[in-house]
Amino acid sequence: MSKDSPQQKCEVNQPISMVKQEQQEVDVWIGQDNSESRTSASNSTRTSSANTISGDKCFVCSYCSKRFRCFSQLTIHQRSHTGEKPYRCTLCGKRYFQKGHLYTHQRTHTGEKPYRCSLCGKGFIQKCTLDKHLRSHTGEKPYTCTKCGKGFTTKFNLNKHLSCQTCNNKFKCVFCGKTFEYLSHMTRHMRKHSGEKPYVCTVCGKRFAQKTYLITHERTHSGERPYACMECGKSFSQKSSLNVHLRSHTGEKPYSCSHCGKSYAFKIALRTHRFTPKKKFKCVFCGKTFEYLSHMTRHMRKHSGEKPYVCTVCGKRFAQKTYLITHERTHSGERPYACMECGKSFSQKSSLNVHLRSHTGEKPYSCSHCGKSYAFKIALRTHRC
């Protein structure tokens, strides 16, 4: 067999050599290679176009007008507009814009970590990750906040700091007054009030409030299951499902009952254990029985007249916490439930549900004698009387 025979090359090492080759090409593009490579790149540019001056960005993106020195750079950039991902992982099916990104991803399957920390020996898939790790040893903080002067080891931590209450006021929800440290958190929260779902499935048209929900949903159409168990090979569409499944191999039981100490591998098993009625609880006043102690305690307040929840504004007392929360909105003027049709807002969700019938025409209350239907319960009661 010849020295350069492809059969002698390891399949895992083959992509690495291609990565190095591609990295050299990238270095030429951005001018970080040696002087000989820069000269070669400059000559190539002059040969390709007689009207191009060395260093000019003559390749223009037709989508955003951004300019590039190399046509290959332009091609890669335009994929951010078209969504094209031509490089596909043969193991999990995940796709990428650039060939180098695919090679980096493949290391998550092979376990290869070519970049080693010289201080602690920890291995990394990418060089940039190693560079960030080294700062934990050196204490270097190259990213500085221009507002307060605080330094950070990574750009991500700086951006997180900039959107935090440290440099800005807390972000407040205009519907319920809840405050958030980050604008993105408040924006996501406000969709609970507005009902906004900006992420749309292109296959079935279903909408989602968060992008992660859409990505997970799209796998129900594609059948993609990128998370595989290393023990039995079973695959899952979500990483959380894989983590739960792994407990069937490890025997881990992280959920414990606070009453009896019994442990369970799955949260649903603990919940079932907690709410499985062991005995019926009996009201000492009327003899009525309940499956859960909390239900009986709440019921007994009807007999005892106990009202443990007090309004701090007017002193009015309530038997249940939910009644107090609803009452407090009469003082604050808060109306967190808004109608998407006309914009009218309500302090209680039940009031919004009743109001929506004026738009939908729904009439759920029917007279048992004449069959006439009504949208509101009070209208049926008036009709009967």
TrEMBL record:
Skewed-composition ranges (Polar residues): 1-16
Cited SUPFAM superfamilies: beta-beta-alpha zinc fingers (SSF57667)
Name of the protein in its database record: C2H2-type domain-containing protein
Region (Disordered): 1-25
Residues of the C2H2-type domain: 59-86, 87-114, 115-142, 143-170, 171-198, 199-226, 227-254, 255-274, 281-308, 309-336, 337-364, 365-385
Any one Gene Ontology molecular-function term assigned to this protein's record: zinc ion binding
Gene3D superfamilies the UniProt entry points to: Classic Zinc Finger
Record PANTHER family: C2H2-TYPE DOMAIN-CONTAINING PROTEIN (PTHR24379:SF121), KRAB AND ZINC FINGER DOMAIN-CONTAINING (PTHR24379)
Cellular component aspect of the GO annotation: nucleus
UniProt-listed InterPro entries: Znf_C2H2_sf, Znf_C2H2_type
Pfam families linked to this entry: zf-C2H2 (PF00096)
Described function: May be involved in transcriptional regulation.
Keywords (A to Z) from UniProt: DNA-binding, Metal-binding, Nucleus, Repeat, Transcription, Transcription regulation, Zinc, Zinc-finger
Domain of life: Eukaryota
Keyword Transcription in annotation: yes
Main location: nucleus
Localization terms from the record: Nucleus
Methyltransferase recorded as keyword: no
